[in-house]
Structures are given as structure tokens and as C-alpha cells.
Amino acid sequence: MRKISLIIFLSLCLFVSCAWAQGIRKAVWAGQFYEKKAEILSQQIDQFLENAKKTPPPSEEILALIAPHAGYVYSGQTAAYSYRLIQGKDYESVMIIAPSHRYGFKGCSIYSRGGYETPLGVVEIDEPLAAEISKASGYKYVPKAHQMEHSVEVQIPFIQKTLPQAKIVPIVMGYPTRKTITNLAEAMIEVLPGKKVLIIASTDMSHFLPKKKANDTDFKTISLIQSFQTSALLKRLERGENIMCGGGPVVSSLFYAQERGEAKAEILHYADSSPLGGESQVVGYLAAALYSKNLNPNFSLSLEEKTELLRLARSAINQFIREKKIINYSTENLNFLAKKGAFVTLKRKGYLRGCIGFIEPVAPLYQTVIHTSVYAACRDQRFPPVSAEELDDLEIEISVLSPLKKIHDPSLVRVGKHGLVISKGNKKGLLLPQVPVENNWSRETFLKQACMKAGLPPNTWKSGADIYIFEAIILR
Q1: CA-CA distance, 423 to 11, in Å (whole number)?
Q2: Are residues 213 and 233 both part of a single domain?
Q3: In a domain, 205, yes or no
């Protein structure tokens, strides 16, 4: 009986230990990286924010900040330039992506329950958002990744002062491999649009170089960040170059910002450790903001609207084939009046019979559907014009396109989600999102086929070609 009681007791201890493994993560670095007394810490951050240049925030939505994570005496003032930009905004959650300094592991660790404590109090974890990111990325909680990590912790007091209402999702990134970086970016792209979430990419710049070399190295890296040269940054990270300790979080954030629209990077402040540590071994610190000039709107069509557009396409084809007239159609539907690119695909008895479209949004959607339907039936040079006898057997599919988005890293192409445009010189090839799914292609095959569609060698996508992605609402 005594043995059974001991087993039960040990089991309860184990249960309690596991339950608290993701409870309130206590402050580890208070008194070392930043002030331990709440009043002094609060006053210090207030002063940092007051000292930060009061530039008006951009009118566009700020998607992410880049902020350093050294001790506040070294980098606190630089961090304040980032946080000053979002002070008092209405973000509901902040996703902190930070590098692992003390524990090596693959993938990312997501702190998904409980909270993070600092001398200013406890910040609650946004548990539903953490669960969504975990599901989309496949990354779970790795306790040792958060246990002694300072790169998340030092961001928390700034969040508490500038966004007191916000919850957090702390993510520690392990080895910054291409797969880990892009996988996290894809999860953010899937989960975050439509939510009031700010990303903090926690990073310092080059480490322990002489001041001149450190500054030169950092300015080159900053130039790559400003121009969203994600491929170049990834190559340097994969080679282990001394450019950023949080390079993985930064590149994931760049990928995310690019996907959201016409992205820009604003450099807010740069400094290094030389005023306090001398010029022989310098660490660089950067404050920057990533924002989008033109966030992709969530354009959607109701079932009734889809039905009406398919009916319009069929009527346009029938009238032109039988009467050689363009259908007369008017509407007050705002979705139909929105300028959209679209393709119309015609099949008969399962075989392609015509496919033509407009990539660019040059006309209202209803006009685009009318003209592409007629062109697919009569002007696809691969096929003879559709005859009146074929009209009843035609299968019509409409693809309403999102705006094209240029990407620099082909690993961002997602089969089943993205369509492709690959161009070089005066050659251009387009494949709709449903094509690789219907043919069971891999990402690489999809890219090769898009090159061949453009009349280019299959591997042109690897170098020298411009790659664009888009999404489509498909009507059948």
C-alpha cells in the first residue's frame, strides 16, 4: 500500500512538473540585461522612448519590427526607436521571433500556454493564436529553448510599456536553416492576415568585429534588408556568416511582409557597442520597421456571385457564337465592378477546348469575364473556334486572379495555393494554381513547367528569370 502511495505521489509530482512546464515563465535576466526594480525599469524605458526621434508613423500598416536584444545599456535606446513607432497602436497580439543562444535544436519552439513575467508584471500568452501557428508550422514547445533565452525576454518590458493591452506568442528559432525560416514564414502567411498581430524580429547585428569592419558589414546587411534580398540573406546565413544572430527571424519576417503586399523596410536607427565597450570588439544594433504600402484585400465572392459570373460567361459565349455579338450586361455589384485579372478555361468531355485570360487587372471583373470567355471560345490559336453544336457540352471554369507578387526565393511557391508567372526578356509563361494539382507536380516540376510554358529552358527559374506568384478564386 505504501509502495502504491509512493507511486501515486511521484506521478502527481510529475504531473505538476509537466503542468508548470508551460505556466508563467519567470524573469531570468532582470538585474542583468535590464533593471530589476519595476519603477526604475519603467522610468528607463519611458526615457528611451522620449529620446527616440519622433518621426510620424507611416500611414501603411506596420507588420513587423526589427529590434535588438542586448543589455539595455547597450541597445535599449536603439530598440526604443522601433517601439516608439507602434506605441499606443491597437495590436491585439505580438509575435516575438527570437534566436536561440544557449540550446541547439531544429525548427522552432512555440511557448503556447501561460505567460511571461518581468518586473512590470505578467504578459499573457495568446493561446489560440499560438495553437494556430503551431498547427500550421508543425512546431511545438521545446522547454530548454525558452528556459534561459534572453532574446525574447528583453523585448517584453518594451511591449508592456508601448502595447499594454497586447498578448504575446514567444517563438524561439533553432538552427536558422532555409527550411525552418520558410516554414515559419508560410505558417505566418497562412494564419496572420486579418488579425491585429505585430511581429518582433529579435536580432543583434554582427558580433565582436573591429568597429570599421562591423559597421561596413552591418551596412551591407541593412542594404539587403531594405531591398528584401531574402535569397542573398539566406545564403549568408547558411554559410554561417557573422551578419545577424537573429537572421532567421528577420528573413521569416521579410517573407511575411512581402506576401502581404507591396512591402517596404524603414531603417529607424543604427548603433553599436563602441561607446561603452571600445572599438576593438563591436556588436551592431538595428531598429527597423516592415510595412506594406498596399495590403492585399481579402477579395471574395459569394455563391450567388460565382453562379452569376458562370452564367454570364456561358451567355457571352452562346451569344457571340450564334449571333456574333458581345453580350450587353450592366451591374451595380461592387465586386463585379472591381478591376480584376481573370482566366476562362473551356473543356469539352474532359478535354481542353480553350483557355485565355488577362493577368493584369485592366477592366472591371464582369467585363473581363465577358471578353475572356469569348476569346477562349474563339481566339485560342491552339484550337479551332467553338461551334454552335458544341455549346451545350462546354464546361466553363473561371479563375479570378489576385495581383501578381514578385518573389526572390522559389521556396515560397506553394503548390495548390499559388499560380506562377515566370518571365525573362520578352518571354512570359503563366500556369494557374489548379494546374500542378491536376498533374500531381512537385514545386520544382511546377517551376520547370512554367519556364517551358514561357519558351525558356526548364531550369531558368534558378537564375536569371523573374518569378511572380498569385492566388485565384476558382469558379466551376
Answers
A1: 63
A2: yes
A3: yes
Same-domain status, 373 and 460: no
Does 231 share its domain with 346?
A: no
Helix pair angle (178-191, 230-238), 10° resolution: 140
Decide if 26 contacts 36 (C-beta within 8 A): no
Residue 25 lies inside a defined structural domain of this protein: yes
32 phi and psi angles, rounded to 5 deg: -125, -60
The reported pTM is 0.69
State residue 9's pLDDT score: 36
Cell representation of residue 459: 531550369
Q: What is the DSSP letter of 379?
A: T
pLDDT at residue 54, rounded to an integer: 67
Closest CA to 247 of 230, 263, 260, 264: 230
Q: Which of 268, 269, 277, 230 shows the shortest CA–CA distance to 249?
A: 230
DSSP 389-416: GGGGGEEEEEEEEPPPEEES-GGG--TT
Residue 404 has pLDDT above 60, yes or no: yes
Grid cell listed for 334: 461592387
**pLDDT of amino acid 19:** 35
Please tell me the predicted confidence (pLDDT) of residue 24. 95
Among 264, 265, 404, smallest CA distance to 340 is for 404
Give the pLDDT of residue 167.
Answer: 97
205 vs 283: CA distance, rounded Å: 6
C-beta separation of 183 from 138 below 8 A: yes
Q: Is the pLDDT of residue 65 over 70?
A: yes
CB 254 within 8 A of CB 225: yes
Q: What is the pLDDT of residues 211-251, one digit of tens each?
A: 999 999 999 999 999 999 998 999 999 999 999 999 999 99
d(CA 252, CA 457): 30
Q: Does the pLDDT of residue 195 top 60, yes or no?
A: yes
- Residue by residue, DSSP assigns 322-374 as HHS-PPP-----HHHHSB-EEEEEEEETTEEEEEEEESS--SBHHHHHHHHHH
> How many structural domains is the chain composed of?
3
Would you say residue 1 lies in a domain? no
Q: Are residues 213 and 348 in the same domain?
A: no
User: Which residues, in sequence order, are CB contacts of 216 under 8 Å at separation 6+?
Assistant: none
Report how far residue 112's alpha carbon sits from residue 114's, in angstroms, rounded to the nearest whole number. 7
Mean pLDDT value of segment 118-146: 97
Give the pLDDT confidence score for residue 3 in this predicted structure: 45
Predicted confidence (pLDDT) at residue 260 exceeds the cutoff of 90: no
C-alpha 224 chain-centroid distance: 17
Query: What mean pLDDT comes out for the span 311-324?
Result: 96
**Pair 394, 414 in one domain:** no
Of the three residues 351, 369, 400, the one that is the final residue of a domain is: 400
Question: What's the domain range around 83?
Answer: 21-295
Mean pLDDT estimate for the chain: 91
